[in-house]
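Fold this sequence, please.
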Amino acid sequence: MTNSRMLSGRRRSLAIASAALIMLTAACGTESDAPGVGDDEAGSGGSGGSGGECLGADGEYLIGMSQANVAEPYRQQMDDDIRAAAEGIDQFEVVFADAAQDNAQQVSDVENFLTQGIDLLIISPNEAAPLTAVVERAFNEGIPVIVLDRRIEGDTYTQYIGADNFEIGRAAGEYVATELLPDGGNVAEIAGLPGSTPAQERADGFREGIAGNDGIEIIAEGTGDWLRELGQSQAEGILQANADIDVFYAHNDPMAEGAYLAAQAAGRDGEIEFVGIDGLPIPSGGIRAVEDERLSATFVYPTGGREAIETAEEILIGCGEVDQEQILETQLVTLDNAADVYAELGGED
């Protein structure tokens, strides 16, 4: 099968039925009949977004994966995890699109998927607000939608999968407050892409985590857009402007590594601690950076790729309903446990 394959008879029927539903809804002036909307008091929608008869194991299914970008190692790993999990399911074909941090491109990518007649959408939004409308469109056209890692505004999707970014940020703050700077000190923060929900949540959580230590101050902030090179250039400017920095807290490991490289070039790496998030079990990931003592700590943030395919299987093949949220577990990684965590997560040599 190819990305440009023609719609099956089933998909044509679904498209016609969805169009009719939309027209009827517009005429009646209500949204209560949209798939998965208003199905329960909590507004969870169950496995809402699924439409038509479920063919189960007898069907063949096209899944579209819309990725915010693949410049981040984390996001490439997410795609790889989805690809590997889907290879074990004969009924699944997954097509991938890379938005390259361009909101308009990602909207276009999803629209292209809809034209191809996908049976399920997986999306990791570049930013929340610009991607909300197209996700809602897919969902309201009867397509199950799995939102992965980054949220949209509202809850018009079938399932969100990701770790709790606020709690990760809070844990990072507590680690800095109790382990790295118990007597107080100065922190520089390098944030992810503005408008992406993890960036805001990891920032807010960190501030709550350090709140119990009055001696800690965030004296400088930069925006690295999740990229190592930009994180490094932001750190260079911060280091030039501030003679006394004790900790760099970055919203992901690549930016933390970028800060380390900037400090190393300035001859100051020995006087600063570096904390990141992601903890990928790959040679270039954060766990190995902790083992090599470039980072003091990282926090494992699972990609959710395997879980997304498991959810897709439950919906499309199992014809089942799913919870609207699936929160993944995380853990602190320091030099004491880095080698063990790397092995437990099946780290590559």
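The chain is about 40% helix and 15% strand. The CA atoms of residues 114 and 138 lie 7 Å apart.
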